[in-house]
Amino acid sequence: MVTTRRLPDRSQQERDPWYDWDHPDLRLNWGEPIHWDLDMYIRNRVDTSPTPVFLEYYV
Q1: How far apart, in whole angstroms, are the C-alpha atoms of residue 6 and residue 11?
Q2: What string of H, E and C letters represents the secondary structure of the chain?
Q3: pLDDT of res. 35
Q4: What is the tens place of the pLDDT at every residue in 36-48?
Q5: How many CB atoms lie within 10 A of CB 41?
Q6: Is the entire prediction scored with pTM above 0.85?
Q7: Domain range holding 32?
Q8: 12, exposed or middle or buried, with CB in 10 Å at 0-12, 13-18, 19+?
Q9: How many domains does the chain fold into?
């Protein structure tokens, strides 16, 4: 039986922008395991980073 570890569903946008990546446009290093759905989590797609929500109430 093969056990697999599931990679977290996190967008590439959440990764450190100042790190010296091998592929800076994807924020990936050579030989690093990639998510099965990488095309969905690249920086110009889904952003899973927590962002503040500002609610404006109009009177």
Answers
A1: 15
A2: CCCCCCCCCCCHHHCCCCCCCCECCCCECCCCCCCCCHHHHCCCCCCCCCCCCCCCCCC
A3: 78
A4: 877 776 766 666 6
A5: 22
A6: no
A7: 1-58
A8: buried
A9: 1
